[in-house]
Every structure is written in C-alpha cells, then in structure tokens.
Design goal:
Rossmann fold; 16 helices; alpha/beta; 26 strands
C-alpha cells in the first residue's frame, strides 16, 4: 500500500460524525460497484438504455477486464488514464476497472478541442487514453505533441485519423483478459480520479479526488435527499464527465443497487422524451437550461412522465418560470441544489417537502457551511457573505497548482467558493453572484446576475444572460442576450424589458443593450457558455 495524500478535512470531523461516515484506512472506490455482488444484486440491472441492459455481474466482469488490460500496458499504481467517452456501458467499466487496478482515470469533456486535450495529456502525464471511435480524430498531432501518450484504446469500433503511437480496438483486445481482478490495496486518501475545471477564469485546474470521496458524497447527499432504492432508475441528462452527472449516473445508483439510464449522443428533447417513455426512469436530473428547453419543446405534452418520482436541478439558478413550467408539465416540483466539482456534488439543496422559490437550498447533512465577509468574519442571517464549505468529499488539491490550491483550499480543509449568498432565518441560502463580478455602471455598483435573474422572471423571456462589457472609452456598460418565448419586435421588446428591470430593481441597473437571439450557446455540461455570450 502506498501513502495517501494529506487530506486536510479531519476524518472524524463534524460532517463525518453527523452522517456516521467511516471507511477503512485501506479502501478502494471500486467497492461502490463491486459491493453489489456481495449484496446479492449480481442479476439486477446496473445499466439500461439504447445500448441494452447490463447487469451488475456483467459490469463487474467487464470492469475487471479493463483493469487487467490497462495493467498489461505497463501502467503502475497511480498512473493516469484519460477517458474521452460518451455515456455508454464502456464508461463505468473503464472507470471502475482503472480504479480497481490502482490507476487514476481522468474524466474529460468530449467537446474538448485538440489544443486543450494536449494540455490535459501533458499536465497529467497520461500514457494511455480511452476514447470512442467518433472522438479518435481529436487525438491529432496537436493533441499528442509533447505528451507521454503512447496508447489510444478505441472503446467502440475502429478509428483512424489520430496521431497516437499505438491504437487498440477494445472489443477484441479486452476479450483476452480475465474477468476477475482483486482490488488494489489503496489508502482511503489515495488518488482515485481527477476532473478538470472548466477553465473559465484561466487554464483548467486538475481537481484531484480521493478513494473515499464517492462514498462520502453518497452518504451525505443521496441518502438524505434522493433516498434511492434498488428499484429506482436514475436518468441524468448531464454527462458522466461532469461532476454532477458523475454522481447522478455512477456514484448514487450503484451505491444503492439501482439502475442508471445512459443516453449517448447530444441530448435533444425528442430523444429525452423517447427515453423516458421507453425506459421509465424514476429520478431525473437536469439543468435549468435543459428544463427550459424541455418545457417548450414539441412533444412535451404527449410524453408520459408518470414514472418519475423526483426531478433535480443544479449548476445554475432556476427561475420561477421554469420551475412552474415543469410542474405544470409533469406534476413534479423540481428539487434545486448547488454543488461544485471541488466538493464532487451538491452540498446545498432544497427538499421535496421543504423548499423556497429562488433558494439554492438548505445545508446538506455531512457538510459544514459558513458565510463570511471579505475579512473572514462570520455574517449574520439576512446579510450577504462569501460561502465556505467543508466536507470529506472535497478535493485536497489542484494538480501542479500550489498557487490555486492555497487560494481555494484553506486551513482545515475549508473550500473558499467565491460565491456570494444570503442565508435567511430558516437556513435557506440564496445565491447572489460571484465575489469578483461586481461592476460599476454609471458610477453605481451592479451585480450582473441580479439583473439576469430579474429579466428571467419576465413572462416573455425564455432564457437570458447578462454581462458587463467595456466600451471604447473604457466605461463599463451592461448588456443582455435574450431568447424570447415568441418572436417580437426588437425595439418594442427592448423597451419592455428595460422598463421591467427599472420597475423591479433600482432604475440604473437596467441593461443598456439587449441582443435577441434564437438560442443561447451552451457548454459541454449544458450550462450557458458565458464566454461565447460575451463574444457576441
């Protein structure tokens, strides 16, 4: 056994004691999957979807083949394996196979261009990558230059057009390896997997997660909020490479012996409706932008949503219009939460029986939260402060980034989120924007998010984004990009929306410019692509 990483969060801290969390010092995260065999669930479905049904026994055998295959390539304990995969059965098999073998998979956004892929390969030192055939050409000369990549495994089909020194077709290659593999004797604080930040504020950061983090996020969030049973089927439209989707599709269903519905390809409303009708999921996970498109899409009214018992949203603020639209369509009230890749999943969440419109939610058991001013002093209820969070699923470091680690991960394992919140007397937290996004417009301070949330409440607005832009004379102005529910005269609509903001907020906060478009650009995780919006 190798020594674990220094995890600043105490093993017996307040959060762990609250939820009764404990795992052995020698612990491997592949138990999330493999413990289902010991619990007699081998014949139960682990995966369902267009790719067919895979039982827990079948998935464990395939994961072992992956682990044995990766070790045959000369990889050693702690070596990184880059995963560039869509949501198919290959993803959990390759992931758990790597973890069980003591290797460290990297979960990478499949929209990543070659130059950024090169950074991930070089930064991680990964010698092996696993990709779907459709993504193989992304591993071109630009992506492979000055990296240690020597083997590209094609998870589905065969592909050319790449610059990897060696390529293997997984279908035939894996068949030659045993379907049994003992778990590596990893320390609970050893690296298990990485995810990369979006890089919206500079080059991406490698967010390291430890062997015990998955189990902690399940015991904290899923058991208290989702309350899954083996009869549940989870359907997460956000992809596995996204921390939110990873918990929804991998950690939580497998921890409960439930099934997960995997839908590869671009998640269009029609394919989502068809999957719900055919596979009858019980718990649905989306984003505000997704719920917006689903409630407005053709075919929504004809879809049978009766199998769903819960719908969850995270990552962005959910507007009242979208909340009400989904309730009208399905009869379900969306459960809204907020989390981060650093903490692995949601740490603030409303409850089915206890929620407030516009709130990110209540503290999730197992996580400590504090609101502090810029000098680090605690603020009272109904006062604005910056959110700090601590729990034993939090990353201990950013890979090769001691400067960013020191900036974000503070003494005692507290994560400085940089998010501004107000907490009311009932413990509900309301997001107010980033600590660094305050701008001065016409001599007055404005938070663009406040204006965006206001515009989103207008009945004619389907979705919008508001940002500060610099004018040629160096003054700042406020711009809005808006998608309307129905076509409208832009001049009249601009005045209506500006007057609406002036009425709801202080008059100087209205957006000086409004651009009307058909659809807001989205990132690979389904969020509004704010950098693309700002280039419009």
């Amino acid at each position: 056994m190798t020594r674990g990483i220094d995890d600043k969060v105490p093993q017996d801290g307040t959060g762990a004691r609250e939820i009764g969390f404990a795992v052995p010092q020698v612990y491997n995260a592949s138990r999330i999957l493999f413990d289902n065999l010991a619990q007699g669930r081998g014949d139960r479905p682990a995966l369902v979807g267009p790719g067919g049904t895979t039982t827990y026994a079948q998935l464990c055998k395939e994961a072992c083949r992956w682990g044995n295959g990766l070790l045959s390539l000369g990889l050693l304990r702690g070596d990184r394996v880059l995963l560039f995969l869509d949501d198919t059965a290959a993803y959990p098999a390759a992931f758990f196979g790597a973890v069980r073998a003591g290797l460290v998979p990297l979960l990478i956004n499949t929209l990543t261009p070659p130059d950024l892929l090169q950074f991930y390969l070089a930064d991680s030192g990964a010698a092996v990558a696993v990709a779907d055939a459709e993504f193989a050409t992304r591993f071109d000369e630009v992506a492979c230059k000055d990296t240690k990549l020597r083997t590209l495994i094609i998870a589905s089909g065969e592909a050319g057009g790449h610059a990897a020194p060696q390529a293997l077709a997984a279908d035939g290659w894996l068949a030659g390896f045993p379907d049994a593999l003992a778990e590596a004797d990893t320390d609970r604080n050893e690296m298990a997997f990485w995810m990369y930040s979006s890089g919206s504020t500079g080059r991406p950061k490698g967010i390291v997660h430890l062997q015990h983090d998955m189990a902690y996020s399940d015991q904290a969030f899923a058991r208290n909020v989702l309350k899954l049973t083996p009869d549940d089927i989870c359907f997460s439209v956000p992809k596995i490479f996204f921390a939110y989707g990873f918990g929804n599709s991998i950690t939580f269903p497998f921890s409960a012996g439930a099934a997960t519905l995997l839908l590869p390809g671009q998640p269009k409303p029609g394919s989502i409706f068809a999957a719900i009708a055919r596979f009858r999921p019980t718990v649905f996970f989306g984003l505000p932008t997704l719920y917006t498109s689903l409630t407005k899409a053709a075919g929504a009214d004809a879809t049978d949503f009766s199998s769903l018992r819960m719908a969850v949203s995270a990552a962005e603020v959910l507007s009242a219009d979208v909340f009400n639209g989904w309730t009208k369509l399905t009869g379900l009230e969306i459960v809204e939460g907020l989390g981060s890749t650093e903490v692995l999943h949601i740490y603030l969440c409303n409850r089915e029986d206890n929620k407030k419109p516009g709130a990110a939610g209540l503290r999730v058991p197992g996580y400590e939260l504090a609101l502090k001013d810029k000098d680090g002093r605690d603020v009272a209820d109904d006062e604005e402060g910056i959110l700090w969070v601590r729990g034993d699923s939090a990353t201990p470091l950013y890979w090769n980034r001691p400067d960013k680690t020191a900036e974000t991960i503070r003494q005692g394992g507290w994560i400085y989120t940089g998010d501004r919140f107000i907490r009311d007397s009932d413990g509900f937290h309301f997001f107010r924007g980033r600590a660094d996004d305050l701008v001065k417009i016409s001599g007055q301070w404005v938070y663009p998010l406040e204006v965006e949330l206001c515009l989103a409440e207008h009945p004619e607005v389907r979705e919008c984004a508001v940002y500060a832009a610099e004018l040629p004379d160096r003054r700042m102005t406020l711009k809005a990009v808006v998608v309307m529910n129905k076509p409208a005269d832009e001049g009249d609509a601009t005045k209506r929306l500006q007057d609406f903001v002036k009425t709801k907020l202080l008059p100087y906060k209205y957006p000086r410019e409004i651009l009307f478009i058909d659809e807001l650009p989205k990132t690979g995780t389904g969020k509004i692509d704010r950098q693309a919006v700002m280039r419009m």
